[in-house]
Amino acid sequence: VQLVESGGGLVQAGGSLRLSCAASGRTFSSYAMGWFRQAPGKEREFVAAISWSGDSIYYVDSVKGRFTISRDNAKNTVYLQMNSLKPEDTAVYYCARKNTGVLGISLASYNYWGQGTQVTVSS
After folding, report:
1. Do residues 81 and 18 make contact, with C-beta atoms less than 8 angstroms apart?
2. Residue 28 φ/ψ, nearest 5 degrees
3. pLDDT above 90 for 25
4. d(CA 79, CA 118)
5. What is the pLDDT of residues 106-116, one digit of tens each?
6. What is the pLDDT of residue 4?
7. Across-strand partners of 28?
8. Residue 112 contacts residue 96 (beta carbons within 8 Å)
9. SS (H, E, C) the chain
10. How confident is the model at residue 26 (pLDDT cuts 50, 70, 90)?
């Protein structure tokens, strides 16, 4: 399984970015997917997750109302729409595939990871 993120970049505070994560393989639709981020000097943290069907979604409190996770199982792709970006959102963003179809927030339950994409929000 390979996960490839794209869509990161430099944006001013208040701006928007849309991250994409394309997955290889034919079992994408069977697994929950998640987005995580890691800022310099900090641990990797959970951002958002979506169940295999897209019916269940969960966000960390700090991004609720600003970020939207979605998936297109026909395209083997998961997205993270990020609006009203803040400087504290600056980090490397990673997508990951969970070990089951049920969403979760624990890093340990995700067994495939992308290489990450840098998001920088200037003030």
Report:
1. yes
2. -55, -45
3. no
4. 15
5. 999 999 999 99
6. 97
7. none
8. yes
9. CCEEEECCEEEECCCCEEEEEEECCCCHHHCCEEEEEECCCCCCEEEEEECCCCCCEEECHHHCCCEEEEEECCCCEEEEEECCCCHHHCEEEEEEEECCCCCCCCHHHEEEECCCEEEEEEC
10. confident
Which of 71, 70, 78, 82 shows the shortest CA–CA distance to 96?
Answer: 78
- One-letter amino acid identity for 104? G
pLDDT digits (tens, 9 = 90+) for 40-94: 999 999 999 999 999 999 999 999 999 999 999 999 999 999 999 999 999 999 9
**19: amino acid identity, one letter:** L
Number of Cα atoms under 13 Å in the Cβ half of residue 41: 0
**Those residues with Cβ within 8 angstroms of residue 43's Cβ, 6 or more apart along the chain or in another chain:** none
Provide the mean pLDDT of the chain. Answer: 96
